[in-house]
Design brief:
The protein is of the alpha/beta class. The protein is built from twelve helices and 20 strands. The strands form three sheets. Strands 8-7-6-5-4-3-2-10-9 form a nine-stranded parallel sheet. Strands 11-14-17-16-15-18 form a six-stranded antiparallel barrel. One of its GO terms (biological process) is D-alanine biosynthetic process.
């Protein structure tokens, strides 16, 4: 039989979370963000769950080709734009919309020969300081694009750096609004956190919202709020089983480096899951795990193919875990118990995004409706 580890993708949760984003911004169109292979879920696996979106946004031309191959005929947006002038040929052929965030991309458009003009999203660097034209250069960039016959329509776009925290969006939004005052065109400014927390703030207009992590069931502002607070459901579950049992005595150690020492007699279980499956090697003792739906903790160091868990809380819950018992690393246990991916990630000093994206190719994946 195959090794007992498996991931599940929940299409009903994807549909639900997309609907939650739409309900939060009822006057806006919604991008389904499927960059990074749909945050590790797999573009082909999530497509049926997300086809209710108004468009798909991603990074790579290869990803865009995959979405078109699935039969999608609506908008597809390249969030980082094109990386080479030849990319514009594929944009013309596939009808791709693309972000323009630096002058060289405008130069390439000016030289591009196309029968169908392009829809472009002109990006402002309003304080994130990654991509985009600075405010003082933004209107000149807009004027250059507006003068090109290769450009059909210009959407105004920026990205908030602190929509998920106490600093908020006020300063960036004010700068964006002041700079784009009286410029025509639709606007796209709200990511997951802005969509859920700020969409009704004064002065915020987002004709297109870009919910990324929220669509995949993770809270964009964890730990201030968890996924349940926003009415989100987990879209990925990672489960395995116990493949070994050990009875420890006080003073016994566990795993490489003897990173955990038992302070009393205790029973531990060995789980078929390790960092080669995408679990975090640096997850410390205490990271939450579910065994037979009961919350317990990881003990010792995560190795390539295995990790170890404390079985005492499971016994205390009146269960008798044994070889083959179900272990939920994140997501939904067989009995319906939930372990939020954000909570697991926080224990390991990372974010839910990384756990999703790190799921290893060797882990079998089942899509469930």
């Amino acid at each position: 039989m195959p090794r007992p580890i498996q991931a599940f993708i929940h299409l009903d949760a994807l549909r639900h979370n997309l609907a939650r984003a739409r309900a939060a911004a009822p006057d806006a169109k919604v991008w389904a963000i499927v960059k990074a292979n749909a945050y590790g879920h797999g573009i082909e696996r999530v497509f049926e769950g997300l086809r209710g979106a108004d468009g798909f946004a991603l990074l790579d031309l290869g990803e865009a080709e995959r979405v078109r191959a699935l039969g999608w005929r609506g908008p597809i947006l390249l969030l980082e734009g094109v990386f080479d002038p030849r990319d514009l040929e594929l944009c013309s052929r596939l009808g791709l919309w693309h972000v323009v965030h630096e002058a060289r991309q405008i130069d390439w458009l000016a030289m591009h020969k196309t029968h169908a003009p392009h829809r472009v999203f002109l990006k402002m660097n309003s304080g994130m300081n990654r991509l985009g034209f600075r405010p003082e250069a933004y209107r000149a960039a807009w004027a250059r694009l507006d003068a090109l016959p290769q450009v059909e329509e210009i959407t105004l776009i920026t990205h908030f750096s602190d929509a998920d925290g106490p600093r908020g969006i006020a300063s960036q939004l004010a700068l964006f609004n002041a700079t784009t005052r009286d410029l025509p065109g639709e606007r796209s400014v709200a990511n997951s956190a802005a969509t859920l927390r700020h969409i009704r703030d004064a002065g915020l207009r987002s004709d297109w919202v870009r919910p990324g992590i929220a669509v995949y069931g993770s809270a964009p502002d964890f730990p201030e709020h968890d996924a349940a607070h926003w009415g989100l459901r987990p879209t990925m579950t990672l489960r395995s089983h116990l493949i070994g049992l050990q009875q420890l005595q006080a003073g016994d150690t566990v795993g490489y480096g003897s990173a955990f020492t038992a302070d009393r007699a205790m029973r531990i279980g060995v789980v078929a899951c390790g960092y080669a499956d995408g679990y975090m090697r640096l997850a410390p003792t205490g990271t939450p795990v579910l065994v037979d739906g009961v919350r317990t903790r990881l003990v010792g160091r995560v190795s390539m193919d295995m990790l170890t868990v404390d079985l005492e809380p499971v016994h205390q819950a009146g269960l008798a875990p044994d070889l083959g018992s179900e272990v939920t690393l994140w997501g939904q246990a067989g009995n319906g118990a939930m372990l939020g991916i954000d909570e697991v990630a926080r224990a390991a000093g990372t974010v839910g995004y990384e756990l999703m994206c790190a799921l290893a190719p060797r882990v079998p994946v089942e899509v469930r409706d």
